[in-house]
Amino acid sequence: MNFRLKWVIYILGxxxxxxxxxxxxxxxxxxxxxxxxxxxxxxxxxxxxxxGIENHDxxxxxxxxxxxxxxxxxxxxxxxxxxxLANKQYLEAQQYGLDALNSEPENFWYLNVVVEILxxxxxxxxxxxxxxxxxxxxxxxxxxxxxxxxxxxQKSLSILKDMKDSSFKKSLSLRIKDSLDRPRNVxxxxxxxxxxxxxxxxxxxYKEEIGELIRIKNxxxxxxxxxxxxxxxxxxxxxxxxxxxxxxxxxxxxxxxxELETALDFLIDDIELGNNIxxxxxxxxxxxxxxxxxxxxxxxxxxxx
Length: 305
What we know:
Blueprint: H1 3-15, H2 26-33, H3 38-52, H4 56-69, H5 74-86, H6 90-103, H7 108-120, H8 137-149, H9 153-161, H10 167-181, H11 200-215, H12 219-232, H13 237-249, H14 253-265, H15 271-287, H16 291-299
Helix pairs in contact: 1-3, 2-16, 3-4, 4-5, 5-6, 5-7, 6-7, 7-8, 8-9, 8-10, 9-10, 11-12, 12-13, 13-14, 13-15, 14-15, 15-16
């Protein structure tokens, strides 16, 4: 099977069957594939295809074969965890989920699947605290965010309570408060103006000004404006994106990734903004030499935008 055909299969796996991918363009595909043998590649692609058509037993066997071919590739552990979870083999799913998470404790998606596996068994994170890097501050932030996204606000708040003060803690606490106060609320940036919403006009004004600065590529002014916007609206993902964009285009890629990933923390149902954030994160991580993360974010870009 030649490179292009294999890549077509993988793209189909991503967009038709919602598989975990590693790129959306040939350049990124080459980065992902270059270190692996033809046998590994073909087995991995076939496993994704079988998983996509919900043939989980066959997918599991193929992913296990990938493990035998290269035991260091932690995404195979992640795929095994998801496949065993789908097959309701929770003990096996948990073991591979933990293996993936321990190989990369700060990976949001690895932690998310572990939480899902535990919930399916009626268990909690407390049962496995001693098996993971529970002292990793980023892991704890991810856990608080996962519970927030699952609408388990009290659990998220209890985790935040034990965290040191930070912009993340402040922002997520405000977001939780907003969700508890107005359970039907969506980001006001998408709302139609009404006389009852006194915050809408300044919010839209910031958005329009920032949009113009992005259009004319005035990144120094963009950083200043985004900072000001975040002072007033600390839970708006668009403003974190704007700040991350300004930092990225100003040569401050490491700082940019922090702001852009915070933008994702607060993102709700905005495909276009999400795609822009993923692209910018991919650019930043590619510049920083982290092709794995660059490809991961590229894989999350949804088609049609």
